[in-house]
Specification:
The chain has helices spanning 29-46, 60-71, 93-103, 118-123, 130-139, 180-189, 208-215, 257-275, 278-284; strands at 2-4, 19-21, 54-56, 75-78, 85-89, 112-114, 144-149, 171-175, 192-196, 221-224, 235-238, 248-251. The protein is of the alpha/beta class.
Length: 293
Amino acid sequence: MIKHVGSPNPRPSQCRGEIKCFRIGCTPKATIDKYLEEAKVFVGKANSKSVCPVFPSRRSSALRTVAKILDNGGVIGTPTDTVYAIAASCKHPDSIRRLYTVKGRPTEKPICLCVSHLDQLRKADPPFSPLLWNFMNRCYPGGISCVVPKGSWLYNLGLGDAYDIIGTAGSICIRIPDSSVLAYLVSVSGPIAITSGNPSGGADSTHHDMLIGSLGHKLDGIICDGESRESCASTVVSCLKIDQGTITYFREGCTPKEVVDKHLEDAIQQTNSQLHEPTLQRHVTAPGLEIGA
């Protein structure tokens, strides 16, 4: 049990940042002291005029506030299942354009589309092959991003005018993180455009402090969740030729190439067993077939 030293109900201006332990139980005093220091830093950053508002990741009320920021056209920083990212709602094309400005990203580099789960993608009814679906079933959710053919099915996700801003003319990168924070935000606000939370060419943000320090003055809010789960971003895989039994890599990130290649091999086997088509068997399992690049 802990107690503030001072008046029974101190106003913020009176708080001295001190606590007193009546009993040291299962949680060591050093741990409680560490929590206090982290709280001081958190409050200090929240009150800083040079930094956007910050929100704790474990409070649903805070996440609802961030969802409203997205709905109102704001750009936010968020944890993912890899490193920190910045995001904007697909309902606001100008906010997606602002992502490029915030991080100084060249406009020729596409931005990913983030959805909450694979069923959300299925409901949009993209004309993907059984092999691509079987492959994505193994990749999502998690630290793999799949580049797939673009099409009118994206309007079923509510992209609207954002269609021409996200991805390239013929393809789009789909991100489905294994993240409760992002799953909640997308379920409330709809699909979001997302990119890594660092200045273009800079180091990945592996703690909310890094994101606050580098881009905090340009954002409308940051969700703070401490250390990131990974030290680098997701692995980005092109699935544009997957029906030829081939995938290529735009970036090898937190998920090793060997793991992704195994996903493809297993997806090919599953697809062959489902379709019972010898032509597919010969096509995708021919000797010397290249998997990866």
